[in-house]
Write a structure and sequence with these properties.
By secondary structure, the chain is α+β, with helices and mostly antiparallel strands. The protein is built from five helices and eight strands. The protein has one domain: Gcn5-related N-acetyltransferase (GNAT) (Aminopeptidase). An eight-stranded mixed beta sheet has the order 1-2-3-4-5-6-8-7, sandwiched between helices.
Length: about 150
């Protein structure tokens, strides 16, 4: 899959061996994730990448699974590329994948509360932390967890 976006950006699946470079992008974007995790998810076509005009990764979204729900492991765009549609394209790709795979909902652990307004505009709702159990409780980020039913 490769899809052209506005402003010369392009959306694609991560390629084998992209893990280390994408882990660096994720860290700079404020959503740190281990390169080995990205490599495993990329092998299953569960990592989406937005490249800038020069073909350099500008953002990524990686999805896993917990308790039968699609869980976003990483979602971030480099600060210099924000507010240009890259985050929306990544989140749309995550949601399309989740629908295709018959997940009932997408869960996003919030690493940074600054992402909350963006996710609320997209129809996500804050999960009640007191009602989370098991794996989802452990996966909640420092700023909580948001969920969107599909």
């Amino acid at each position: 899959m490769k899809r052209a976006l506005a402003g010369g950006y392009a959306l694609r699946f991560a390629r084998e061996g992209d893990g280390a470079g994408l882990a660096g992008v994720a860290g700079r974007a404020g959503c740190p994730v281990d390169a080995a995790v990205l490599d495993v998810l990329a092998a299953a076509n569960r990592v989406f990448v937005v490249d800038d005009v020069s073909g350099t990764p500008a953002g990524l979204a990686a999805v896993g699974e917990a308790e039968g729900l699609c869980v976003v492991e990483a979602l971030g765009v480099l600060p210099e590329h924000r507010r240009r549609g890259a985050g929306s394209a990544l989140l749309t790709s995550v949601e399309e994948f989740a629908r295709w795979a018959y997940y009932a909902a997408v869960v996003v652990p919030l690493v940074d509360a600054a992402a909350t307004p963006f996710l609320f505009r997209r129809g996500y709702l804050a999960a009640d932390a007191d009602r989370l159990t098991g794996t989802l409780a452990a996966r909640a980020g420092p700023a909580g967890l948001v969920v969107r039913r599909l």
